[in-house]
Amino acid sequence: MKVVAVGRDAVFVDLGEKQEGFIDGAEVLGADGKFSVSVGTSLSCAVVRDDGERVQLSPIFVRTPVAESSIDVGGGETVSIPRARSGPLLIEGAHVRGTISGIERYGVFVQITGTQGRSGRGLVHVAETGAPRNADLNKLYTVGAEVEAKILAIQEDGKIRLSFKALSADAEREDFEAYNKTRDGGDQEATADVAKADGSKGKPPKPRPPPVPKTLGTLGDLLAKRRG
């Protein structure tokens, strides 16, 4: 089902056959106090109450990626996910913690923290573990170990695709961006120090005239010097 309208205190979704259901706005609030869904967002929901006139729902999955501002992935911290009645609201693109619940030849199963059963269990395919090709995953991972992963996708049937490799890539990108900001800030400070030393009050220093090359003078000057 999809979000068709966003009110001040509730979000409305299309149930088909010209019927709508609503979700309490508190269940889809992000860390910034704003709704983590918008018109067009695809949801999987559980029915909380149906009195024949109004259908109240509780979200389980958000399959359409939301604005990055509503997902906190900075500083190595996990995403701050809105909490639904049945557990945390899982959002594509979010960083989550979990526990390894199973290891197979084709990948690692992770039970996301705050969830129970299949609705919160995701698979990290072997290609998304970052392990060397043909590596024995049982030698690299242990059932019960706590891990962090990124939600790549939540399929229509509720299956969750996770990735360790994408999480590492995000961390490397954050480090690179932080380095660039630090470097750019250092260059600006250096320019400001030079301007302050020159007394230019922040203005770029005036270009210095090129040095005048020393010469022996004209031929007449040289002859006159010798005669003297």
Detail the poorly predicted runs: 65-84, 212-217
CATH uppermost class of the largest domain: Mainly Beta
CATH topology of the largest domain: OB fold (Dihydrolipoamide Acetyltransferase, E2P)
Overall mean pLDDT stands at 74
Largest sheet: 6 strands, mixed
Describe this structure in words.
The chain has 228 residues and is of the alpha+beta class. The protein folds into 2 domains: 1-90, OB fold (Dihydrolipoamide Acetyltransferase, E2P); 94-200, OB fold (Dihydrolipoamide Acetyltransferase, E2P), CATH 2.40.50.140. Helices cover 20% and strands 32% of the residues. The chain has 3 helices and 13 strands; from the N terminus they run βββββββββββαββαα. The strands form 3 sheets. Strands 1, 2, 3, 4, 5 and 8 form a 6-stranded mixed sheet that branches. The chain is flat, with a radius of gyration of 31 Å. It starts with a strand and ends with a helix. Residues 65-84 and 212-217 have low confidence and may be disordered.
What's the structural blueprint in terms of helices and strands?
Elements: E1 3-6, E2 10-16, E3 19-24, E4 43-50, E5 55-62, E6 83-84, E7 87-88, E8 90-91, E9 95-104, E10 107-112, E11 121-125, H1 137-140, E12 146-154, E13 160-163, H2 165-197, H3 219-227
Parallel strand pairs: 3-5, 5-8, 11-13
Antiparallel strand pairs: 1-2, 2-3, 4-5, 6-7, 9-10, 9-12, 10-11, 12-13
Name the features.
228 residues, alpha+beta, OB fold (Dihydrolipoamide Acetyltransferase, E2P), six-stranded mixed beta sheet, five-stranded mixed beta barrel, 20% helix, 32% strand, flat
